[in-house]
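The pair is quoted verbatim underneath.

:::
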Amino acid sequence: MLKKALRQHLQQTCQEQDLRQWYDPLAITLSKDDKRLDVQFPHPFFAQWFSATAQVTFESRLREFLGDGYALRYTSGNGGSPQAAPARAAAARQLDYPFGPRFTFDTFLHNRKNQFPVASAKEVARDGRDPHDRVYNPFVVCGGSGNGKTHLLRAIANELSRSRDDNAIFCGAVDELGTRFSGLSASGPGAAQERQQARSRLCAQEVLVVDDLQRLRDLPFLQDELTFAFDHFHDNGKQMVFACSGKLADLDFLSPKLRSRLEWGLIVELREPDLDVRVKFIQQQSRSRNIQLSKEHVLTLAQRFREFRHLQGILVKVGAYRQLVNRDIQDRELEQILRHTDSGKTTSLTPETVIAATAEQFGIPARDIVGDKRQQSIVQARQVAMFLCRELLGSSFPALGRVFGGKDHSTAMYAVRKIKQLQQSDKDMQLLVTDLKRKCLTRAE
């Protein structure tokens, strides 16, 4: 019964032929008491093939189906021989990815060129609760825009969240950090207390993961706050991870105090993905979105767009086109999609863009979407906007909560799940979301 229901869920995004190959041979049992799903492979060779071809898609869809709090354990059988017992079960691991299910080490594609930064990131993510085990602290990831820095940072945060409450991890961009301090009073009664409270809330986290350090150029007041937080985290042996576009040495606006602290740890550079990696990325993303692309189309995209972020945006457009027009992409259609796309231009799609488009669609002010009003139409608009931010931007649940007026991450999780479910049962909602995706992407061009 469980396997049949899960198969029906997978059919929404997976081809029937693929399910026959990698899903039907699995033996699946669910322990509700332990909140654990056991998956048994028919034999070890099948396990190796499954890991290389289908595991990422399976686990992503499985989390959507089961919800949060479940663990997954794989075992391998003996190919049907009744005499031999199944191989020793691997340790169960959690399915929760609070900072985005797309952002894991398994889904980060790379070759030898980026082997060192990825291996270093995995070492940082290894759960060493003893401060003396943290040899890379801080850990700073540099590299060009769209090379995968955000993916790597969130993969670290997702891995660390397995052994601690995800609310104990700050994982966000400098702009998100800025929202915690920008509204504080500069002077007057209570100003010092407000600032101290904001600092205390940040320092109460167990892990600090900050993306887009280059944005400090436009938010110079945050340098003192980051320096203060850095000293606290360092003195208490708590892990810090940072990322910036370009090289750290090129950020000439950094204060000497903050720069010297960032240079204490390990600085690695993510280099631009090679053609073979870009091809694998397109194939991976196409499978997860159920998009059929010919080998020629895959190669065209990989040659034309050199950054993961650009490729991600193009595949979202291709997926939206296929959903709206309901047909496979031909040469003419692909060229039409690419015609107005600049391969050197970074997408301007932001949460604010999504919120504005959603507010316009529902005919309500954008401030109501990020506010606390509980009218049904406003609540639904807010949930749709949260879903779109998650779908188009890969925003983590804690980040969604902060963007939408400081709400709890569980509120964002509920909103995303509800809109997903509504699209399955309500054709009007499916059309609404599809139309909003198109509008958001059009505004970002």
Notes: The chain has 20 helices and nine strands.
